[in-house]
Here is the input.
Amino acid sequence: MDNGQSLLEKEAYTSLEWFKKEQALIFGNTWQFAGLEEDLKAPGDFLNVQCGLQNIMVIRGEDHQLKAFHNLCRHRGAQLLRPVGKSKKVLVCPYHDWVYNLDGQLIKVPGKDEEFPGLDLSRICLHKASVGIWRGIIWVHSKPDAPALTTWFEGLSSHLGPHNPERLIEYPGTNYDRVVNANWKILVENYIDVYHLSHLHSHTLKMYDHTKAVFGFKNNHFYFHEPLAEIYQAHLDRLIPYKRIAEMTDPHLGAYVPWLFPTLGLSESECMWNIFHLEPLTPETTRVRIRTKMEPMSQAEYDKQAQKSEKSWSKIMGKGTKFNSKSEEDPFASWDFMEEDIYACEQQQRAMNTPLPIHVHYAAHREKPIVSFQQLIRHWLTQANHSEETPCLIFSSDTTERFLGNTQHGGHIPQVYPLSHIREKGKQ
Ligand code: FES
Ligand SMILES: [Fe+2]
Here is the structure.
């Protein structure tokens, strides 16, 4: 099958109009990645996350449960909390010092008797949103009556790795946080493009057998898994760059790389568990953040295995870069598949601005996920029941537009880093 033409026009990747529509209809109506469960350990720890046009705060309550509210004071809509913080006892709005408890209930209004004699505090609470945990990840949804997370991810678990992310450790200094010059959908399409693995990454991802990849969609989400390449598996003890994940027993070995709609990729391998999060910033820029967790290990264990792997790698797996370039600037000389991907995505984004018509030809099987993803985008943008709710302020509902327009980035900034950077660091 030659699909002939993209289901999405060029403007889908370049125009502000498309971008705003997606913010309202996709990101305002789906579960969004907010952080890892351990980011909010103690009562009063909080973070903010942008769900389309709405900024949502997640806070751990006195009862140790996570709660989610719109980050919007019920007085006149000021943002209550900064992006990330710890140990709040109460929530105090910086504008006029209205005070809420950790359940979102208004408990104090300065000058109440003179200024707001009729105001019944017990009737005023922050607007509720939804929060849940799935696979050690905190998810938020801007609606209080969001579908259950178990429903949202239904049927996906059997396609994921056996990893238990709650048990794995995120090491300091292993983060990755970068703005890429490409529309977020180009990055997704690259992530779910099975065809490019043996070509763009012919030297950097040879530890997996792409010919045996199993992939497809389960509802809104893409799943993908492939076994280790025979040679890599045969010498795994020597080649594996970091301690093997305990759950990755022989029958499970391989890479599990699902895309969770709309903006979170997972990459679950024999020695790492990564999240790959996209935050669309503008129609043509996207922030990419990667966080990596690994098996708990000492520094000595870490160094020993990394050195062993480095020493054996080129002997067993062969060396060489795609174009044998020696330039540090060249993404193909980096031994880093992320650099290769980013190069390809940024070039594709540039192509969106060419006056030439772009007639695309999608591979019938290995690029089919791209077509399915574009169908999904169309589906979410045309569903009739998607109406953006207007948060209700108490005294100035005519200012709602102003607050809806506040797309100031409020997400917490995680400590992140890429699988590829770790994997390849030792090999340069
Ligand atoms: S106290 Fe929050 S806007 Fe006035
Ligand atoms: Fe890639």
User: Anything to note?
Assistant: The longest helix spans residues 299-317. Residues 73, 75-76, 78, 93, 95-96, 98 surround FE2/S2 (inorganic) cluster (ligand 1) (CB under 6 Å). The chain has a mean pLDDT of 85.
